[in-house]
Amino acid sequence: MTDTPDARTAAPVMEIFASIQGEGAFVGEPQVFLRLRGCPMRCRWCDTPGSWRVGDADRARIAATVERGGARREKPWATPFQAACWIAEVEPGTPRTVSVTGGEPLVWPEFLRGLRSMLSPRRLHLETGGGHPKTLAQVIDGFDHVSLDLKPELDLDPPEEIVATAGSPTSECAPRTSAEWRAARAACLALVAGRDACAKIVVSGERSIDDLGPLLDEVERCAPGLPVYLQPATPIGGSTAPEPKTLVLLAEMARDRDLDVRVVPQMHRVLGLP
Ligand code: SF4
Questions:
Q1: pLDDT above 90 covers what percent of the chain?
Q2: Are 120 and 152 a contacting pair, CB within 8 Å?
Q3: Which of 6, 149, 162, 173 has a CA positioned 20 to 30 A from the CA of residue 52?
Q4: Partners of 230 in the beta sheet?
Q5: What CATH number is given to the structural domain containing 200?
Q6: Ligand 1 closest atom vs CA 131
């Protein structure tokens, strides 16, 4: 793309498809998923590592309905208008909620800001890894719901910032140190407090209640009314599922802090859906 105003709002689309929401507060709801490429974070249990990097040879998978010609590949860089056109192609029936996921969607704030006017009056949901509070503050008013991952630093390898030949990636770097992660989580929690939002904590077999308890303390301190979803890691790509007793103990720890807690596995994985 050339450096026009349109090009600056572009983001690399990895895939757009209709499916059932498998995580968080809207689990089970038929939605459209807009997955963007690009993520500087390196969660060890990441289930979409193919979304991390942005390459010129990438292609976007547009899972259009059969009536509209079926799935195809497109060049990935899309403006909000182009993404809205592709979204309309993939959903059967009437317009539905769009979940913007990744990768880390907050890498592309100009694109996110442009989506609202293109997709109204649908609900627009944001799924974020919670490492970019300043960028979240810039875009949050354009979303009807935010699903915020709370990540313990123990689950993260050092970040790798995005190298992109187009678009306008955020200038905010992902946290590197424990102190930076604590500050990012606290700032993100303060931003979503009192909004239509939820927090998600992935519980892998490698983590103990001592590792994850401090995240519950942070929710209690920064956003006490925020629903918290404890999500057992799906054992794929080298990550392991937690012991059931770990989930039960964590849920009890959340209740001890008067948090609104649920334990929900990745339902799209359980159902064999994308
Ligand atoms: S933030 Fe999301 S996409 Fe990025 S590494 Fe973590 S789980 Fe994967």
A1: 82
A2: no
A3: 6
A4: 201, 263
A5: 3.20.20.70
A6: 1
Please choose, from the candidates 265, 149, 266, the residue with its C-alpha nearest in 3D space to the C-alpha of residue 198: 149
16, β-bridge pairs: 34, 62
Decide: helix, strand or coil at residue 141. Answer: helix
The set of long-range contacts for 262-265, using a CB threshold of 8 Å and a minimum separation of 24, is 262/227, 262/228, 262/229, 262/230, 263/229, 263/230, 263/231, 263/232, 264/23, 264/24, 264/27, 264/229, 264/230, 264/231, 265/231, 265/232, 265/234
Helix (H) or strand (E) holding 263: strand 261-263
Backbone angles phi, psi at 259, to 5 degrees: -90, 150
As for how many domains the chain has, the answer is 1
Encode 218-259 in three state secondary structure: HHHHHCCCCCEEEEECCCCCCCCCCCHHHHHHHHHHHHHCCC
- Mind listing the pLDDT tens digit for each residue in 158-182? 999 998 888 899 999 999 999 999 9
Q: Is the CB of 46 under 6 A from ligand 1?
A: yes
Span from the CA of 43 to the centroid of ligand 1 (angstroms): 5
DSSP category for residue 173: P
How remote is the CA of residue 104 from the centroid of ligand 1, in Å? 7
Single-letter code of the amino acid located at 19: S
Residue range 18-29, pLDDT digits in tens: 999 999 999 999
| CA-wise closest residue to 78 among 9, 32, 135 | 9
